[in-house]
């Protein structure tokens, strides 16, 4: 869980803007893995209604940032939402980890996985309501997986698996959506579906935070960017972040990216 610490006599809490309660505010976040510093003094804001991407080279701490925000790894600093630590509000969050972290041999169908998104609202060991079943059905339909509803998840393609976990996130009816590398190993059709859903969520005022590594044309879908390389290089709109200087600092040299990204 993120903790408040003092730096030079000033509380980390002082870095939080009391007028930005609907945004996620990250102040002086740091992560150490034993002797290795994974993230150092990250300060940024993730706004609702904006599709925010976390970018940077391999090993930059992109996934670590999301995990630290959610309390999945120990960290210092403060992560706050609606005036309280984010880790005290996990019921408001839908998190989809990297596909490589999921056991695809687990004996579950598409329907089973999506219904898992209703557990928090229903309660453990309680029967799902008609409303929950309708929410799950609608989520499966939205990602185009209705015909696979009874298919074991291990028999699906990479793109189909990613759609199932997107549907599970939708079924949670969350306020905050966090996705870690959702575009790895998927087809163009699935990528289009995912971005369509992301834009629908942001249009509804949700917070959508996505770890990505692609500096190609897909970057034009993002409203705001967080550029990392173990520390915050830049944050803001695409135009503000995607400068030659920032990319050089992040990637250590000249970087080619989609020229219309700004």
Description:
It is built from eight helices and twelve strands. α4 runs antiparallel to α5 and α5 packs parallel to α6. The protein has a six-stranded mixed beta sheet with strand order 8-9-10-5-11-12, with helices on both faces. A four-stranded antiparallel beta sheet has the order 4-3-6-7, covered by helices on one side. The protein has a two-stranded antiparallel ribbon with strand order 1-2. It starts with 5 loop residues before the first strand and ends in an 11-residue tail after the last helix. It has 262 residues and is an alpha/beta fold. It has one domain (6-251): P-loop containing nucleotide triphosphate hydrolases (Rossmann fold, 3-Layer(aba) Sandwich).
Brief summary:
With 262 residues, this protein is α/β, with parallel strands linked by helices. It has helices at residues 62-69, 110-115, 119-122, 130-142, 158-171, 188-203, 238-241, 244-251; strands at residues 6-7, 10-11, 24-33, 36-46, 51-55, 76-81, 84-85, 93-96, 176-180, 207-211, 224-228, 232-237.
């Amino acid at each position: 869980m993120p903790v408040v610490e003092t730096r030079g006599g000033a509380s980390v809490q002082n870095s939080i803007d009391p007028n930005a309660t609907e945004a996620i505010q990250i102040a002086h976040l740091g992560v150490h893995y034993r002797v290795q510093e994974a993230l150092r003094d990250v300060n940024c804001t993730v706004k609702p209604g904006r599709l925010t991407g976390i970018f940077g080279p391999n090993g930059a701490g992109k996934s670590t940032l999301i995990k630290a925000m959610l309390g999945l790894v120990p960290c210092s600093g403060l992560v706050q939402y609606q005036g309280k630590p984010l880790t005290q509000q996990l019921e408001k969050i839908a998190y989809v980890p990297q596909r490589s972290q999921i056991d695809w041999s687990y004996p579950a169908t598409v329907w089973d996985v999506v219904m898992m998104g209703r557990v928090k609202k229903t309660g453990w060991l309680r029967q799902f309501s008609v409303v929950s079943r309708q929410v799950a059905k609608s989520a499966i339909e939205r990602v185009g997986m209705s015909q696979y509803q009874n298919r074991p998840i291990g028999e699906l393609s990479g793109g189909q698996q990613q759609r199932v976990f997107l549907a599970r996130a939708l079924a949670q009816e969350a306020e905050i959506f966090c996705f870690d590398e959702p575009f790895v190993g998927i087809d163009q059709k699935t990528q289009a579906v995912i971005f369509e859903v992301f834009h629908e969520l942001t249009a509804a005022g949700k917070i959508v935070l996505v770890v990505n590594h692609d500096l190609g044309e897909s970057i034009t879908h993002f409203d705001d960017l967080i550029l990392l390389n173990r520390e915050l290089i830049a944050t803001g709109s695409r135009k503000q972040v995607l400068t030659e200087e920032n990319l050089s600092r992040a990637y250590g040299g000249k970087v080619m990216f989609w020229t219309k990204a700004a």
